[in-house]
UniProtKB/TrEMBL annotation:
It comes from Pyronema omphalodes (strain CBS 100304) (Pyronema confluens). This is Similar to mRNA 3&apos acc. no. Q4IPA4. Residues 1-26 are annotated as: Disordered. One of its GO terms (molecular function) is methyltransferase activity. InterPro entries: SAM-dependent_MTases_sf (IPR029063). Signal peptide: none annotated.
Amino acid sequence: MIEVDPTVLENPRDDDYDSSGYDTSTASLTSSVNQYVFENGRRYHSYYGTDKYLMPTDEKEQDRLDLHHEIMRLAWDDKLHEAPLSEPHRILDIGTGTGIWAIEMADNYPMAEVTGTDLSPIQPNWVPANCRFEVDDAMLNWTFKEVKPRSCTVPGGHVELCENAITASCDDGSVKPDNPAKVYIDHLRAALTKMGRPPPDLEFMKSLLEKAGFEDIKVFQVKEPMGPWPKDPRLKRLGAMVLLHSDTSFESYGMAAFTRILGMEPDKAREMCEAARLAARNKNYHMYGQYYRVYGRKPAVKQ
Ligand SMILES: C[S@@+](CC[C@H](N)C(=O)[O-])C[C@H]1O[C@@H](n2cnc3c(N)ncnc32)[C@H](O)[C@@H]1O
């Protein structure tokens, strides 16, 4: 249970948090239209068609991903991973985005060769010498020697999964079913389920690793408060960062999901994203999301 900071609601007439000052109007439209589609003011990659990966790839999204990485660092106590690594030789980051995690892993483990892969070439050129990026579709047969993640992992090596639970929870009943942020999350979950990729839960993530033959599987979860309402100073800071992130995250996650998958009109979809963004700023709602990490170890070769 996350305890609410009583000073957050000192002035009951002033429900909203102060403006974060984050500029949300700087979408970039500079890349080749041959590789991208432009929709509702955002750039998406079109390689995959329009119903498989639903988030934009433009600069606004890249800023969001980097901010979210910092949120993850704070949420996970600065741990880039949970798996017990000592001297890793090879690290693969699938769906690396801007590559920020891969770059930090390369810095932390100079003995390792780190490869980040993504559908989009949005990674920087100046990276540590032991880090490189490749454009690759993880859903196709792998070019890393074998076909399945387990086969590509050395005996004794680890695979770690990290997922957004896509939930809007609260511990004190302050978030009702008709809360606009909750309504938004319910629609997002419906869209992901409709497209055959329901939001994962810990049991499902664990079962994937079990089925693939991994052992010593461990599961972890953290709460991401929406707004600086918690009393605990670390959670308060985390909540402030999540609120800043929410300036663009509702649109990033929601627009394509609502229009392409649920068939919603763009105006209605934007209204739903904006209502959720405003609800997130309301001090009376003590809402939080959750993140999951699950890792397993590939059995060592029997002597
Ligand atoms: C939500 S972003 C996360 C980025 C990064 N891992 C992070 O935490 O900041 C998901 C990334 O996965 C990539 N992606 C989606 N489907 C993919 C696929 N089939 N193969 C490779 N990358 C994929 C997207 O292009 C996007 O950059």
